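Annex B.
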Amino acid sequence: MQIELLNHRPCMHQISLDDIRLVNLIAKVGSFARAADANDLPRPSVTRRIKQLESYLGVILFQRSTRRLSLTPEGEVFLQHCQTIEMEWLQATERMKTTGSEPSGKLRVSALGLFNRTIAGPILSQFVRQYPKIELELTSTWSAPDASKFDFDLMFNTKPLDDKSFISEPLTITNRDFYASPDYLASIKIPETPLELNEFELVILNYTDLENGQWLWQDGNTVRSLALQSHLKLDEAEAALQMTLLGHGICWFPDFVCEKYLASQQLVRLFDGKFATPGTLWAIYPRTPYDNQRMRLFIDMAKSSGLLGKPVTGNS
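LysR family transcriptional regulator: predicted structure tokens.
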């Protein structure tokens, strides 16, 4: 797509949609270098393209300094147009993709590894069979959502994104509870309350919605926090699960991760589940004036499966 803006400037004769997107991206991430890295472009080429664009427009768009990059007043005005153009283009292409009888196009989903191991089973299989024309990219993350680095259509995370340009939709409610292997429990005096946990070996999985080494427990109507110490702290859910199954201590996991291991008696739930803490899994996506049909189909399938917890009805 070519967008004709002016006719009598040197160096450039047309501004492409890629140029529009580049301006939007630089403004979003606040750096030529980060924009280049996000688009897998050589950093000098980004600088060169912006200089050509500024030469064509006859104005400076970005004020460069060694410490920060900022938009000039002219750049602020141009950015508004660039954002409108890209949004209208996305809206037009999305509308065309959804007018056909069968959903198609690319869908980029990022989720905590904790959830991907569940999604990658029946949910993913059902989705690709039911919608074979959708090009699905599923990646794992171990980080809290970050608006400046959000380059997906959809993210599943335990922490919502506090940014007005994004929607954090409650997807499911799941209980996080305390588990250990029968072999480990046979070797210790089983604790009676979570307050005793620091006396035992712990397998700590770090969660994006909590401080590292922090667990929660439900004390009646009050949610209390535990600051824990352990020689075993992990960011990867599969590693934490395997270490727990192998008898290396007590873990705190969402119930949907542990259900099949409870059924096979490879794990035991501590305290009869009375200290389990409910938590929300969030579906996070950019706020746009159009509906992304592919994303909505994936959200609805993940929610209705029940495999990620109890579905939440309605949007936030």
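The longest helix spans residues 73-99. The chain has a mean pLDDT of 87. Further annotation is deferred to the next reporting cycle.
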